[in-house]
Amino acid sequence: MQPTVTVIIPVRNEQDAIRTAIESVLGQSYPNITEIIVADGMSTDGTRRSIEEFHDNRIRIVDNPATTTPAALNAAIRAASGDIVVRCDAHSVLPPDYVAISEQIMADTGAVNVGGIQRAAGTGLMQSAIAMAMTSRLGVGDAKFHYGGDAGPSDTVYLGVFDRKALVDAGLFDETLIRNQDYELNIRLRQNGGLVFFDPRLAVEYRPRGSLRSLARQYFQYGAWKRIVHRRHPESIRLRQLAAPLFVLGLVSSVGLAFTTWRRLALVIPFAYLVALVATTAVSFGKTRRIAALVMPVAIVVMHISWGLGYLSGLRPGSPANAE
């Protein structure tokens, strides 16, 4: 018998996006999806109505009065009965064979969590530029789940298809972490002896933020909460995660050097960064011939500076600036 599968979806005020996400779940080729549990953070728009319009008895809504993502995920997991728990976010679109391939990988490898690529895609100029920035090596470094790579063990993966027992044994998601809770959970899964496995066939479409302001807010939070995870798990620090805060410190140092006799050195970091931006933009535009590629460097700068400032600030849980 094939394992039973529960798909969980955290959501809050996503009346339009949630329909596409659920449709992608209902279109899965895997035959044993027994539950689709949507954890709603007390939406005030038409989100619940959009969910109820499906009239599928596998779909259930559970309340998430805490309104945060980890609380939503945990509420859905506690209500789940499937052997396997598949996470799908409201802005994600699962390909039709996503669950089937994931289950096969788990059977072949013994992995407790498998996942693949966050394939950012946008509509409109700014969202498309942000999507391109999120799939650029300059933008996001060497994280395989952003742009791909060889299948194999990984620190983390996008979303996740979990062995439910391993999830419960690890203690579920840490609800004190508003962001970066998935990365931290994967640390505990691996500490428990579990295998986290990346496979590029598991590419999930993701719709990024549509404005630079919301992108800056998102990446500031990413950086701040990454710093908190690093305090708890210093062994998890990777060089790519330090690049943005070091870049911000470099810019500050450059400003300081501009008022000294070493003022020529003040141009080194900004000039090197500008060259990298121009080269990345030229390559991207050459491949795509899209105007969005010319706007992409602005998104990259916003991502780097916001993430770096967030990391350096190291905001504590409970700060108003950390609210979603």
* Strand content range: 15-25%
CATH-defined superfamily of the largest domain: Spore Coat Polysaccharide Biosynthesis Protein SpsA, Chain A
**Secondary-structure element string:** EHEHEHEEHEHHHEEHHEHHHH
* Residues in helices, as a percent range: 40-55%
Task: Kindly provide the radius of gyration, computed on alpha-carbon positions and rounded to a whole number of angstroms.
Answer: 20 Å
Note the gap between the termini: 41 Å
CATH uppermost class of the largest domain: Alpha Beta
Principal-axes shape call: globular
Biggest sheet features: 9 strands, mixed
Structure summary, number of beta strands: 9
Instruction: Examine the coordinates and then state which fold CATH places here, giving the name of the CATH topology of the largest domain.
Output: Spore Coat Polysaccharide Biosynthesis Protein SpsA, Chain A
Query: Number of domains in the coordinates?
Result: 2
Secondary structure category? alpha/beta
Structural description of this entry:
This protein has two domains: 5-209, Alpha-Beta Complex (Spore Coat Polysaccharide Biosynthesis Protein SpsA, Chain A), CATH 3.90.550.10; 230-322, no CATH class. Strands 1, 2, 3, 4, 5, 6, 7, 8 and 9 form a nine-stranded mixed sheet that branches. 43% of the residues are buried. The chain has helices at residues 17-26, 47-52, 69-79, 98-109, 125-133, 137-140, 144-147, 164-170, 181-191, 212-232, 239-257, 268-288, 292-313; strands at 5-11, 33-40, 59-63, 84-87, 92-93, 113-120, 152-153, 158-163, 196-206. By secondary structure, the protein is α/β, with parallel strands linked by helices. It is globular and about 70 Å long. The chain contains 13 helices and nine strands. Helices cover 48% and strands 16% of the residues.
